[in-house]
Amino acid sequence: MEKELNPDEEDPFKKFQTLEGKEAEKKKRKEKIKLPETFAHHAQKDSDVDFTEAILLMRHEELSGIRIEDSLKKMKFLSLKNGDGYTVSIKNGNFVDRGRKDYDHHGTGESSSFDMAVKKLGLAEEEWLLTVRKIIYNAERKGLSNPFDCNEVSKVIGRSNLSEKEKSELGIKAAYLVLLFHKQGIERNTDLTRELLKDFFDKKKIKTPERFRRYYNQLGKENFQRPCDLCEILSSSLQKYGEKATQELGETLMELLYGSFLKYRKAQNSVEDYKRIGIGGGHFIMVIDAFSKEILLNEKSHVVALKCGAMAVVQKNKTKQVQIFFNKAAVTKEMTDKIVHDLRKLEVMKQNREFPKDRESMNNEGSILECPEWYYFLGDAQSDGKRGIFIFNGSLTAPDVPPTQIKLDAIVTIVAETLKGFEEKKA
Questions:
Q1: Is pLDDT larger for residue 380 or for residue 326?
Q2: CA neighbor of 53 nearest in space, from 137, 135, 121
Q3: Whose CA, among 12, 181, 215, 241, lies 20 to 30 Å from 170?
Q4: Are 259 and 297 part of one and the same domain?
Q5: Into how many domains does the chain fold?
Q6: Residue 384 falls within a domain, yes or no?
Q7: How far is CA 398 from CA 73, 157, 232, in A?
Q8: Which structural domain, as residue segments, surrounds residue 308?
Q9: Which contacts qualify for 211-216: CB closer than 8 Å, 24 or more apart?
C-alpha cells in the first residue's frame, strides 16, 4: 500500500521547488561531476573512440548542464601511437581504447570501449542505445560496416589531415549527433541528405560516382534504413544546430568521404602492380612493398587486393612496418595461429630475447610481452563462421610500434608456405 504524505513532515523535495533550491542543487551536481582535461586514445581513431568519448561528454552534459560544445573547447587530446606500450601517464584524464585502464576494453572481455563506458555510466538497460551498441560491436569485433555509416565517417575523419584536436572534435560531434538521434527519436530527413549529395557534386561539376549515387537512390526509397549513418548525423544536426551549421557540417564530411573514395580509386589503378605469389589450388597472396618505385600505397591498397581474390596481403609501409591482412572467406584461425607463432619465434630469435615460459602463448591474441612487434587480432565469428583476422607489426592506430627485424621476403615465405601447406592438406 502506498504511504500517504504526512503534511507535518518536511517534504524532501521542497528544497528543489524554489529557484534558490534549484540553483543550489545544480551547483552541487556540477561539483560532483568533474570533466577530464584530457582524452588519451590511439592514433587514427575510429568509431569506438569517438562514441566512447561522445557518450562520456553527453552524460556530463546531462548531469552538469554544461553543453558538450563548451566542454570540447577545454578538452585536450593525446594520441597514443605505441600500441600496447602504455607507459604514459596523464593527469586528470581518461584513457580510451588504449592504456589498459579507464575505458580501454582490451584484455577485459568487453566487446568495445563504448560498451564498457555504457555499462560504467549505468546505461546498459537503455533501449535507445541498443542499435548503436550493435553497430559499434559489429565494426570492432567483426569488421562489419556499411557505406556512409558512422564507422566509415569516423575512419575518414581519423585518417584525415586535420589536427588532432580538429579530428577529435569533429569525430565526437558526429558520434554525439547519432546518439542524440536515437535518444530523442529524431526523424530521418532523407531529403536533406539527398540534396546535400546532389549539391556537392554539382558544385564540383563532376558526375556523381556510382558509390555515392547508389546511396542517393537508396535514400529515395520509402523503407530504406541504415542505422547510424550520415543521414542520422545530418537530421540530428538540423534539429540541434539549424540549417546553416548543418550545411557546413555536411560539406565537411562529404569532402572527407570523397577524399577517401579517391584513394580507393587510385589503389584500384595500382592493383596490377602488386606482386602475386601462387600458393596452389588457384589461390594466391599479394605483396605490396612501399619501397618499390612502381607501387602506389595508401590505406585502401589492401582492401582492393583482397577484393581481387588474394588469400592474404603482406604490406610493407614507408615506416618499415609490415601488416598482414587475410581473406576472411578463405583463411582459418588454425592457419593464422601458425603464422603468428612462426613470426614471433623468428622475431624473438633475431632480437636475442628469451622465449616465454609458456610456449603456447606464442599464438595468443593481442601482443605478448616477449614480442611486442606483432599484434594478432581475431574477430568474433559471423553467422557464417567467417571472422576478420590480421597480424600487424604497427598500424595506422599504432605507428610507433618498433619495425620488425624480419626481412620482407622471410615474412612472405612464412605466410605463403603456411597457407600452401594447408591447401595441400585439403587436396
A1: 326
A2: 121
A3: 215
A4: no
A5: 2
A6: yes
A7: 26, 17, 30
A8: 274-426
A9: 211/147, 211/261, 212/258, 212/261, 214/147, 215/147, 215/148
Contact 138, 144 (CB under 8 A): yes
pLDDT at residue 423 greater than cutoff 80: no
- On average, the pLDDT of the chain sits at 88
Do 122 and 177 lie in one domain? The reply is: yes
**If you count them, how many residues does the chain have?**
427
CB 97 within 8 A of CB 140: no
Domain limit, last residue, from 265, 287, 313: 265
Contact 347, 394 (CB under 8 A): no
> In whole angstroms, what is the distance from residue 75 CA to residue 375 CA?
31
Kindly state whether residues 120 and 146 are assigned to the same domain: yes
Tell me how far CA of residue 246 lies from CA of 23, 171, 241, 250, in angstroms: 33, 15, 7, 6
d(C-alpha 30, C-alpha 198), whole Å: 45
Cell 589461390 found at: 283
C-alpha cell of 366?
593481442
Residue 21 is predicted with a pLDDT of 52
Return the DSSP state at 107. T
Q: Are strands 371-378 and 389-392 parallel, antiparallel or unpaired?
A: antiparallel
Helix (H, G, I), strand (E, B) or coil at 42: strand
Average pLDDT for 174-189: 98
Is 225 in the same domain as 321?
A: no
End position of a domain, from candidates 244, 265, 286: 265
| Structural domain contains residue 19 | no
Between CA 156 and CA 162 the distance in angstroms is: 11
Distance CA 175, CA 295 (A): 35
- What order of strands is seen across the sheet that includes strand 371-378? 275-280, 283-289, 312-316, 322-326, 389-392, 371-378, 366-368
